[in-house]
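Summary for the lay section of the report: proteins are chains of building blocks that fold into shapes. Here we show the chain for Signal transduction histidine kinase regulating citrate/malate metabolism and then a coded description of the shape we predicted for it.
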Amino acid sequence: MIGGKKNIWNQTLDHTASELLAEKMELEYQYEELLRKYEEQQYQKEKIDQLHENTRRLKHDMKNHMLVLANYLNQENVYEAKQYLSKVLDKLNHIYTYIETGNAVLNSCINTKLEMAHQMGITFKAEIENLSFSKLGSIDLTALLMNLLDNALEASQREERKEIQIQIIKKRGYETILVKNFISNSVLQYNKDLKTTKTQNSKEHGYGLVQIRSIVEMYHGMIDIYEEEGWFCCFIAFPLSD
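The coded shape description reads as follows.
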């Protein structure tokens, strides 16, 4: 009888220990998720602050350029004014354009990556409608867009033709996101499952696509990864909010 009670007691202890271990693992996972999201937010804040500073500098420079042009015109020196204006326009062609979408999250994500593309010498084209993506939390929408664009930027660095296109539009009852980057050779032909080929930090490098799929699934969306006419495409669609 005593032995039977001892066995029951041991089983109870084992069960309790298993529950505590599972709870500990869940808490550790939640902590890591919160820490990751906090780090992402801090990173985005730094990039947004940098974007605002660059915009402020651009406005300041333009004011000075206008003063110089006004001085030339006041002196009726039209030729010098035209020459100076031509140089200013040429310089502006090498400066990224701020994209206004009407959505604060989209603005910060897209313009942050637009600036990075400019610094990397990557052409960045965008077609953006004012969509709310109201069913998605702002953190998840940020993580989704950042991972999509990071993947495209990283892939474009290895190409001679460096070009990214992003389209965010409403289509047939869905809010859709399409990110495309030009590729000279097929990726899916030799890497259908898109497994990382990097030897360092492979866990981190593979995490981006895992997170993208997880967010799409969480909000009952659809994802399609395909290639078309020299472009690597990632298409995502979420049902329109009621």
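Put simply, here is one thing we learned. Strands lie at 123-128, 163-171, 174-182, 222-228, 231-239.
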